[in-house]
């Protein structure tokens, strides 16, 4: 699935769909035009000048046009509500204002939150965003990378990217690529995300502060860099504080749905040694799955087992008040993504940006 975010549908020839109420003093004729596609031709017809003159004025190049003509065109643009189509202009100039975001599993609230934040930052800077759901599949990721290249996008935002041939080719060409939430699977590159090891370590400190000295951890079998680092940081901190590594139980399950993974991994863990007093789930959705099994097992959460997640899903206070979750401020990611893209566009060096997470009290 690909979705174009940030602007209304338009054709490729500079036309823009405009609607809404008429401004005070607007004529009925203009009001009718506002309900139709307002184009350069519309403005030219209303002002009695050529389309080329209108185009130059729109682009800040008035040329030989008189001050009166410039003022008349500017008034018509404002009155009619004309807005240039950034996609059409980009395709004609090969200077795109469109950025592609490729993200997996957009039904995951974390992915949606990153998309919302990034789209808002890009829109405020005059860019529009195409959003593609890769479903964590390398071949689909490559299909979208090629499709977006065909659209002359200015850059790519790769949220939780997977290793693929198309990604390797894009990086080999020097395409502007920012990796978000999960580091570049091929190594290096501009990155925006939290320090996942530190988040895992904070979860361990929280458990120990609650008197839980033998917590366990649930992971996905396809344990990619971000969640693997959370689990590693958790175990490393527990060991550093005196918990024998052999006594830290771990369980994982295959799949792409973290809720299903949480349920299945919890069953494996519990079947092998019962419920622990504390359980780190490397994402909130994994915690939701574990909670389902706890309810079926007639456990009382958090009294019988403290569940700790990582994400800080905004829905938690409504549907999961039982969950202690390390909050990731996804709403701030967009500004950092834009910052990295601008560095790439200018040819400047980039570095990893670690956005501070909010530790548990």
CATH class of the largest domain: Alpha Beta
Number of helices: 14
The percentage helix is 40-55%
Strand order of the largest sheet: 1-5-4-6-7-8-14
Order of helices and strands: EEHEHHHHEHEHEHEEHEHEHEHEHEHE
How far is the first residue's CA from the last residue's CA? 39 Å
Structural class by sheet pairing and helices: alpha/beta
Q: Any idea what the shape is?
A: elongated
Query: β content, as a range?
Result: 15-25%
State the CATH superfamily name of the largest domain: Response regulator
User: Count of DSSP E strands?
Assistant: 14
The number of distinct structural domains comes to 3
- CATH level-two architecture of the largest domain: 3-Layer(aba) Sandwich
Summed over residues and divided by their number, the pLDDT gives a mean of 86
Question: How is the biggest beta sheet arranged?
Answer: 7 strands, mixed
CATH topology annotation of the largest domain: Rossmann fold
Task: List low-pLDDT spans.
Answer: 6-35, 90-94
GO molecular function: DNA binding
Keywords: DNA-binding, Transcription, Transcription regulation
Domain HTH lacI-type: 38-93
Pfam family, one: LacI
């Amino acid at each position: 699935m690909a979705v174009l975010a940030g602007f209304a549908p338009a054709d490729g020839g500079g036309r823009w769909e405009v609607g809404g109420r008429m401004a005070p003093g607007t004529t009925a004729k203009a009001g009718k035009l506002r309900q139709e596609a307002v184009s350069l031709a519309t403005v030219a017809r209303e002002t009695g000048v050529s389309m080329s003159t209108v185009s130059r004025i729109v682009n800040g190049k008035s040329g030989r046009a008189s001050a009166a003509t410039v003022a008349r065109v500017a008034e018509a643009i404002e009155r009619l509500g004309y807005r240039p189509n950034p996609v059409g202009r980009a395709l004609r100039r090969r200077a795109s204002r469109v950025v592609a975001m490729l993200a997996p599993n957009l039904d995951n609230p974390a992915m949606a939150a990153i998309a919302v934040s990034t789209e808002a930052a890009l829109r405020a800077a005059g860019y529009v965003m195409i959003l593609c759901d890769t479903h964590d599949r390398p071949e689909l990721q490559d299909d979208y990378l090629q499709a977006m290249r065909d659209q002359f996008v200015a850059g790519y935002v790769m949220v939780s990217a997977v290793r693929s041939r198309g990604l390797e080719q894009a990086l080999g060409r020097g395409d502007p690529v920012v990796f978000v939430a999960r580091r570049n699977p091929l190594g290096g590159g501009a990155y925006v995300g939290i320090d996942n090891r530190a988040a895992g370590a904070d979860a361990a400190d929280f458990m120990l502060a609650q008197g839980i000295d033998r917590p366990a951890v649930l992971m996905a079998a396809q344990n990619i860099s971000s969640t693997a680092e959370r689990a590693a940081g958790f175990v490393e901190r527990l060991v550093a504080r005196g918990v024998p590594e052999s006594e830290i139980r771990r369980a994982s399950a295959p799949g792409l749905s973290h809720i299903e993974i949480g349920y299945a991994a919890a069953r494996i863990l519990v079947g092998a040694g019962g419920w622990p007093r504390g359980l780190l789930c490397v994402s909130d959705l994994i915690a939701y799955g574990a909670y389902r099994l706890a309810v079926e097992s007639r456990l009382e959460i958090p009294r019988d087992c403290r569940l700790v997640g990582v994400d800080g899903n905004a829905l938690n206070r409504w549907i999961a008040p039982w969950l202690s979750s390390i909050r990731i401020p996804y709403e701030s990611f967009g500004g950092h993504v834009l910052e990295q893209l601008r560095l790439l566009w200018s040819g400047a060096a980039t570095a990893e940006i670690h956005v501070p997470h909010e530790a548990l009290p």
